[in-house]
Write a structure and sequence with these properties.
241 residues; alpha+beta
Amino acid sequence: MKVDFTPGFVLHRRPFKESSQIIDVLSRDYGRVSVVAKGSKHNKKGQAGLLQAYQPLLLSWMGRGELYTLTAVESAGPGFLLQAQSALCGLYINELMVKLLPQAEADAGLFDIYQYALQGLQSADNNEVTLRLFEKQLLTELGYGLAIEYEYDTGEAVQAERDYYYLADTGLYRWQQGLSYPKLSGRSLQKLVSEQTFDRQSLTEIKQLMRRVIHFYLAGKPLQSRALFNPVHRGQKKDTT
């Protein structure tokens, strides 16, 4: 396969042999792909210097199988500037993309969702809202959309005054006293459906929901980026993931 100057972003980099790197890329037209950037490990100038997270790029590669050779890279515009907590949130969404996205399945909608999340993190108006909406939209694009408008077993619509719990492999159920599952208010679920008017309670409950669902689809694989929100690493800043 030979690809010329397709829009993309660097999701993750890791050393390869003595002087190269393997770059996990999110591309608009080819989905998540892995490419070898030869000689880029110690070269911080020119093309290799462009291979930074949150930098819109035009990427070219060639090869066969699941690991291609990067042949050219150009800037596609100014990079997103993520600072402080936003930078940690950016690492989190990048790790989610690497671990959840299949190889080489194009999804332009997913590419747009990712850029929108970077815009939100750059403005830093409300990182929690940005992350929750990104998680919801990511799951939907991957075919794991949350079924949170109706009870799974009864078919009844969610009501604001009722409490519920959610199972990722089936759906939503009415919560009852004595259950070990985290309780979700119908009010919070309705806010997640409408994607607006979040408050502290709804954000707390939705974060718990997203953690459980994402943990299910990761099959228990840990997210290393979450450790960066530990007070030892983050200077007592709030964990938004």
